[in-house]
Amino acid sequence: MLLLSEIWIYPIKSLGGISLDAATVLQRGLEHDRRWMLVDEQGLFLSQRTTPELALFNTAIEGAHLVISHKSNSHEAVKIDLFPVFTAVSEKCTAVVWEDSVESYEVGAAVSDWFSTILNRKVRLVYMPEDSTRQVDPKYAVTTGDITSFSDGFPYLIIGQLSLDDLNARMASPITIKRFRPNFVFTGGAAYQEETFKHFKIGSVSFFGTNACERCVLTTVDPETGVIAGKEPLFTLSKYKRSGKNVIFGQNVIATILGKIKVGNEITFPNKDI
Questions:
Q1: Residue 242: alpha-carbon gap to chain centroid
Q2: By C-alpha distance, which of 134, 59, 147 is closest to 96?
Q3: Mean pLDDT along residues 109-133
Q4: Cβ neighbours for 148, distance < 8 A, ≥ 6 positions apart
Q5: pTM over 0.85
Q6: Separation between Cα atoms, residue 79 and residue 68, nearest integer Å
Q7: Do the bridges between strand 266-268 and strand 199-202 make them parallel or antiparallel, or are there none, so unpaired?
Q8: Across the chain, how many H-helices and E-strands are there?
């Protein structure tokens, strides 16, 4: 039996994640997942690939607010609205994530200044509104309406706990699932079984596995220190988990029927096509 064991959201792209017991599955990702993003003065997204210290920012949900703090505790935390409201006179800006330009709103000058002070560079925190859409790569989309948030390319990522266990057994020092920033972790089955997932359900919610997730240098950033810790896990993965020239780990996923999920839900395969 395969059981959902962890649910994660990352409200601000590349910042610390939040572990949940239950979540709402939406078309572009879990509710609040990667709807915010830091951009530079040209509107280009920031990530741990080039700014590993982003890992030092924690996020938490308190009531109707997203609370952002820094692991050093030397900076007072800031709060922003989980459901921000923008008016007709609110100024839109363009945020660039990979090849996509996304119409967004700056959350507020004071919040952007807070981040700029800590990072010692000019940045802005932007939000993706409901009327702004970003298409999934048509090569992997289930329908023409498949969209995602500020994620790298897909609304969901699933990884089996046994896959992480197998990887850790091959390395001198184990790492946590946080290195891979999944939305879903499950127990049971076999190592790397998620790579075979096509049509599947978590509880009553339906998903489709599109392709194996290509991994990058972000996985080498220690989420506790915000420092690139070496070549692992990419070095070990490169020896046995490759698709062409790319290192892979985990499965990218699109939701086909929306709804609620919770930790403990069974993962099933109605069409038995895995």
A1: 21
A2: 134
A3: 96
A4: 28, 29, 134, 135, 136, 154, 155
A5: yes
A6: 6
A7: antiparallel
A8: 3, 23
